[in-house]
Amino acid sequence: MTGRGVRALPVGEHALLLECADGEASAALHAEVMRRRAAGELPAVREVVPAARTVLLDGVADPAALAALVAEWEIPPLGARDAPVVELPVRYDGADLAEVAELWGVRPREVAGIHSRVEFRVAFCGFAPGFGYLTGLPSRYEVPRRATPRTSVPAGAVGLAGPYTGVYPRASPGGWQLIGRTDAALWDPGRDPAALLTPGVRVRFRPVGEAAG
Amino acid sequence: MSGRSLTVVRRGALTTVQDPGRFGHAHLGVPRSGALDPAAAGLVNRLAGNPEGAAVLETTADGCAVRPGCAVTVAVGGAPCPVRVDGRPAAWGAAVRVPAGAVLEVGAPVRGLRSYVAFAGGVDAAEVLGSRSADLLSGLGPAPLEDGAVLPLGPPPAGGPGPWYEAVPWPGPPMELVLRVRLGPRADWFTDAALRTLTGRAYRVSPRSNRIGLRTEGPALERARRGELPSEGMVLGAVQVPPDGMPVVFLADHPTTGGYPVIAVVREDDLAAAAQAVPGTPLRFVTGAVTRTGA
């Protein structure tokens, strides 16, 4: 892909929203932005915020000049092996496991095997500090959000919504379908980075303990 | 009590610790936070002899009262309000010496919404990710003040207050809030009529506004497309339009990503006035020649 395939939308006076055709392309663009930033080949940018199919560059002195630069980039496809892997031990006993199994057309105890065979990637963070939107689950396993969100979801809960898997970094309200729970510390402000799941990181879930069902 | 600390006597409707904010972590879902009126926070810090980025108190609508455990130089600014030390009137917008154990009363603003209180040495709340700001969206940083809470103060600045003895002028919040915007990045999600409405019709500041966003009341903005926008990064000043069609201007505690389309972005210079606009203030969004240049 070249930078000409990237749509550059001005956002106010000091930011640029780079939009790609899909999440795969925007992940490759994000990796290229980070590579160039580390190599000192990018003008100063305060925040680089990837999302579903965009990369926001905020705190930019001259967004128009940066857009012209990006158009000239050669953007390599996302390498499969160049990001670190985080493994999360999960007890697959979430409150919505039976419902998810029914939506998938499998038995509840099969959910763990299907989910833990997938290698996920943190597409972006949002909703709460350290909450990653993980992609990788085949589209036939997409499930809707719960019709009524829960007022409190426990920290470490592993949930599904649409194309994403997510892990709640701390107790909060939430509407995702819960399939399990991990003891991993998703968020620790004393750690650098504070988030365990940062954009670009690959993630595997490892079943532990008794599977439900 | 004694020592370099403050005891909260009256917390007010909402009083938080704020500094310039928490930068560089938006990709982890961490809002920038920080004082909503940064110029006012910087000014009270200078008056108190602090670096501009020291942590201050930001009050909302009805001030607060605190009792320092040591004699300390303070300065109150931002929204103009009565200032009293142990009941005696004291200066607003100037350095004031508060004796140990005296009560500093920051009254309700006579204009504007948010007053700022600096203490020599700054409020020494614990830093989280490089900032002492209270972030009310995600709960990072010190909790909002509660009656009886004790806040530590930093060591007094070596040089003492700078040459800023006299009271300083403050423009005050405008009777009408005019926010200069640049259209986009998702102006194409709205009808031409909606774009004309945004920049041609009158809005009002909603009482449902907070540190996350300035909510508005006025004509709804109609979308040209249905469906959902995949989540994308959000900036300070983004004018996001939720399904009810009422524009929301994102302030310091705004979420870092969002799925409602952003019709326009307000210039950062105009956001301090937005933070000082009381509910009901007439509001207009305008596009200017200066906002049309660029890519």
Automatic annotation (TrEMBL), chain A:
Record's keyword terms, sorted: ATP-binding, Hydrolase, Nucleotide-binding
Record InterPro entries: CT_C_D, Cyclophilin-like_dom_sf, PxpB
Give any GO molecular function from the UniProt entry.
Answer: hydrolase activity
The Carboxyltransferase domain extends over 6-197
Q: Which SMART domains match?
A: AHS1
Q: Which Pfam family, an example, fits this chain?
A: CT_C_D
Gene3D superfamilies per the UniProt record, alphabetical: 3.30.1360.40, Cyclophilin-like
According to the record, the signal peptide region is none
**Protein name (database record):** Allophanate hydrolase
- The organism named in the record is Streptomyces solincola
Organism lineage reads as: Bacteria, Bacillati, Actinomycetota, Actinomycetes, Kitasatosporales
From TrEMBL, chain B:
Q: Which UniProt keywords apply?
A: ATP-binding, Hydrolase, Nucleotide-binding
Instruction: Note the Pfam families from the entry.
Output: CT_A_B
List the SMART domains.
AHS2
Q: Which residues form the Carboxyltransferase domain?
A: 27-293
Q: Which organism encodes this protein? A: Streptomyces solincola
The cross-references to PANTHER family, in alphabetical order and at most eight, read: 5-OXOPROLINASE SUBUNIT C
**Full protein name:** Allophanate hydrolase
Read off the SUPFAM superfamilies from this record. Cyclophilin-like
